[in-house]
Amino acid sequence: MKWDEFFVTGDPLIYGADVSIVLTMVGILFYLTRYKKWKWLWTEWLTTVDHKKLGIMYIVSAVLMLFRGGVDALLMRTQLAVPDAKFLDSQHYNEIFTTHGTIMIIFMAMPFLIGLINVVVPLQIGARDVAYPYLNAVSFWTFFIGAMLFNISFVIGGSPSAGWTSYMPLASNELSPGPGQNYYLWGLQIAGIGTLLTGINFLVTILKMRAPGMTLFRMPMFTWSSLVTMVIIIFAFPILTVALALMSFDRLFGSHFFTLQGEGMDMLWANLFWLWGHPEVYIVILPAFGMFSEIISTFSRKTLFGYKAMIWSMLLIAGYSFLVWVHHFFTMGSGAAVNSVFSITTMAIGIPTGVKIFNWLFTMYRGKIQFTTPMLWSLGFIVNFVVGGVTGVMLAMAAADYQYHNTYFLVSHFHYVLIAGTVFACFAGLIYWYPKMFGYKLNERIGKWVFWLFTIGFNVCFMPQYFLGLDGMPRRVYTYSEESGWGPLNMVSTIGGFMMGIAFLVLVYNMYYSFRFAKRETTGDAWDGRTLEWSTPSAMPPFYNFAKIPEITGLDHFWRQKQAGKVEKLTAKDIKKIHMPSNSGVPFIMGSFFFVLGFGFVFDWIWMAILGGIGVIGTLIYRSFEYDDGYYVSEEEVIETEKISK
Amino acid sequence: MQRLKPFLTIGLLMAVFMLSGCSDMVVLDPKGPVGEQQKDLIMYSIWFMLFILLVVYALTAFIVYKYRDRKNHKGYDPDNEGSHLLETIWWIIPIIIVVALSIPTVKTIYSLEGPPAETKDQKPLVIHATSVDWKWVFTYPEQDIETVNYLHIPEDRPVLFKLTSADSMASFWVPQLGGQKYAMAGMETELYLQADEQGTYEGRNSNFTGEGFTDHTFDVMAMSDEEFEKWASETKADAPELTKEQYDKLMLPGHVKEMTFSSTHLGFVNHADQADYALKARERLGYEPLIPHSKAAKEKREEEKKKKQEQQEESESHGDSHAH
Question: Which residue of A has its CA nearest to B27?
Fold first, then answer.
């Protein structure tokens, strides 16, 4: 690596990106200095261990990544709009689809959901924070640093270009030389540590920190879905960690796990990748299911239909998610018996999923349906997700999959489940819990515009792709000939893509508009909700969440209290001092050292990696000698915060 | 109800579109028994899927319309929390559907492992298909000939493809003849295909293999048995022999035009046994992979761009002269 090749050069798009990055940085630095916000940034955000603030930081990062991944998508759609387009060359296109896929799954979908889980789950179970608040901050910073490391690749050294699946031997040194693929390995590796820690943290939180009386079968469905997701994370992410480590060994230290030389086995990578990768798609869909359950129940003013069936179907899906990975490569030639077994297990996942769809429908049955924006997204989810679901079953039929595999049919299918499932849920959840995070609702009228623009754009973009797939258009081609006849449908698809882009901009405008003009909430119960997060007296819960931990008597405890007119009112007698964890700057510093470590490995500068590694270990040692057991919030302070009259 | 109309319209349009546009799409316009079986399976499943969509959409429309919040709202029951009968029904129906789909799926999976039933008795023609970034080398061991980037096959006779790769994992796919299978270095996979109609079919690698992936294609010409035999013996007699030097040059990443040889590469190497042959050949030829954003790589890309443009201009001017 020569120094004059350190920065990516030669493309006007890249120069534009360079300029905008520098301008943004200067702008932020200026703002922080001009308005003396440095201290505020450090004490309120960078050192926080508050699950609500960490959640908000996750969501803000995820929205930024949605923007980045979305720009990638629109660049691709522009290139594909007409045959033989010259907008992007092959290498550039390959880098863009690789970063699009990786960013959307790892750095957008997961952090968005984990962010909402962070904000909501402790509140839903009546806890004051997560089980390990400090670890939660470590999770966030490793995710954030992983994302940043991955993102700088396009201005420094060049982005990975072997696809988000990074199949070997394509991703090996011999076929993909340079730092690009290393960015993938280390960005994911560092962020993966954070995800695994989140898995452990929230598993313990949900199992151990529920309010008294909240048995497992009295937990809200979103908490249930989070619990199941965390179990999947704990089993799936170590596989990714190992697979990435092995590929890193191959690329940095000359081992031969997956390479062409030395009897390496490229099929092993594909197996390991999807052994993690398939559960991963359930990691991003189950919390979405949970959110839709909450939202549909709330706005139908009705108890969730088939609560237990919902839980059992989710557990079944979680189990199945580990038994279907071979369907990602039916075409590898594993033989008729293997393909038959995995065809059937994959189709079987459709059974519990179908049950869930009917349970959602019957939650609305005999309800009183209000068409708020979160509810619209939920209805949009049911209608569109089913299309993704049934095409998923079609793809599961191995003999037919030989024709769908690697085509736009597949591309369309997974966008129908990931967008209509996960992205719709992220939007629905964001809007639903927005008042809990910021104290006001997003504007409903603008929100409905976003919904219709996005949903119509989404269908216009992806519906044609099913037909392109059946017409033999393979995925990941950077252009196609006019004779292929794929031009018109691609143009339609591109138009839909830009509609979704516009919808995103309107959503961002809505955030600004609502920040300026929305009526501030005066109670904690913005939507006439059912679960505990709505039971806090103030719109945004105080940092300790609950002045007094509630006692739970059944499912939808808060809703039933309201129905019976027996919502507890706190008096000064109920207030006791509250134990809370202290803020810490160590997770942020540890994250910075992780960045040094990752960056060193990316460029094969081992000295730098070692330096970073020493830093990481140093912060671990420092932490283990830190005897900070947190602090107490005095009764007076709680009484004052809660505005309780004596 | 008003609010749901666009969805229903989309669903309906999709159904109409699917049924009317079927025959134009290559996957649904097969020219051989393998593709035919797959098409049948696909169409069989599409009917089930349309039925499921119909049920879900009808139910959604009905419930959302009937139980929307309005004046004189009827039938509100906030504690209606489940029904054993209903839930049993929607556990059982999907199970039945999965069984109904599984049986033909498994049958077809097994049937595709061997030659098509109607030509079972014929000896299949064996062709080795080897993927090298970004070209296809086709070897006819019985005819002792080799082609690059094009295939000739006899019609109405099963062809057994033995697939492997010299480098990246590729996927051998001729949509109109049937579904694909991976070609992997150090591994041999088998795929039966058969053409029932004469004609030229497009084939390609459908698995992403890097920069030249988009043009990693080939043509398949299906012809009568006599024509095929004639072509094979003429090739054996007239085409040049494939030398090891020449074959090693093919191992370099890049595209080449169609080529024909009167001998095969199987004497030098079988990539199914020797996964690192291509890498070693590249080393012998002094080839070094370029980091995509290095100066050298950029210069090379510019050069290729120019070359491509010149070629295009050339072919365009040829077209003009023909028109005159």
Answer: A470
User: Do A148 and A595 form a contact (C-beta atoms < 8 A)?
Assistant: yes
A278, pLDDT greater than 70: yes
A242 vs B4, higher pLDDT? A242
- The residue type of B279 is L
Summarised one tens digit per residue, pLDDT across range B203-228 is 999 999 999 999 999 999 999 999 99
Q: Which of A324, A366, A424 to mutate to test the interface with B (most CBs of B within 10 A)?
A: A366
Contact call for residues A189 and A248 (beta carbons, < 8 A): yes
pLDDT at A595: 96
Nearest to A331 among B35, B110, B182 (CB): B182
A303 chain-B contacts, CB cut-off 8 A: 78-81
In Å, how far from its chain's centre is CA A354?
A: 24
* A488 pLDDT more than 70: yes
Best CA proximity match to A6, nearest among B55, B200, B291, B114: B291
Q: What pTM did the predictor assign?
A: 0.94
pLDDT in tens, A287-345: 999 999 999 999 999 999 999 999 999 999 999 999 999 999 999 999 999 999 999 99
Count the alpha carbons within 13 Å of A118 in the hemisphere toward its beta carbon.
Answer: 29
Nearest to B167 among A177, A260, A397 (CB): A260
One-letter amino acid for residue A59 of the chain: I
What ipTM does the predicted assembly reach?
A: 0.92
Which of A402, A407, A602 best probes binding to B when mutated, by most B CB atoms within 10 angstroms?
A402
Compute the distance between CA of residue B87 and CA of residue A423 in angstroms, rounded to an integer: 28
Mean pLDDT of B242-255: 94
Render A131-149 in DSSP notation, one character per residue. S-HHHHHHHHHHHHHHHHH
- 3 state DSSP class of A605: coil
Separation CA A383–CA A465 (nearest Å): 18
C-alpha separations of B114 from A290, A404, B158 in Å: 45, 20, 10
In the Cβ-directed half-sphere of B266, how many Cα atoms lie within 13 Å?
Answer: 18
Tell me how far apart the alpha carbons of residues A12 and A391 are, in angstroms, rounded to a whole number: 40
Name the closest residue on chain B to residue A479, using Cα atoms: B214
**Other CB atoms within 10 Å distance of the CB of residue A147:** 26
Q: Which of A235-244, A321-330, A547-556 has the least mean pLDDT?
A: A547-556
At A510, which amino acid appears? N
Tokens standing for B169?
């994992």
Q: pLDDT value at position A642?
A: 85
Mean pLDDT of B26-44: 95
Residue A299 phi, psi dihedral angles, 5° rounding: -90, 0
Could you tell me which of B150, B232, B136 has the C-alpha nearest to residue B183?
B136
| Max intra-chain CA distance, chain B | 90
Nearest to A153 by CA among A117, A125, A112, A181: A181
Kindly state whether A250 is in contact with chain B, defined as any CB-CB distance less than 8 angstroms: no
Burial of B66 (0-12, 13-18, 19+ CB in 10 A): middle
pLDDT tens track for B118-147:
888 899 999 999 999 999 999 999 999 999
Q: How close A379 gets to chain B, by Cα (Å)?
A: 9
d(CA A390, CA B53): 8
Calculate mean pLDDT across residues A143-160: 92
Residues A267, B187: C-beta atoms closer than 8 Å: yes
* Other residues' Cβ atoms within 10 Å of the Cβ of residue B237: 9
Substitution target in B164, B167, B168, B285 with the highest count of A β-carbons within 10 Å is: B168
Q: Give the span between the Cα atoms of A305 and A301, in whole angstroms.
A: 12
Partners of A343 on chain B (C-beta within 8 Å) are 102, 105-106, 109
Rounded CA gap, A379 and B139, in Å?
55
SS3 state at B163:
strand
pLDDT of residue A91 exceeding 60, the answer is yes
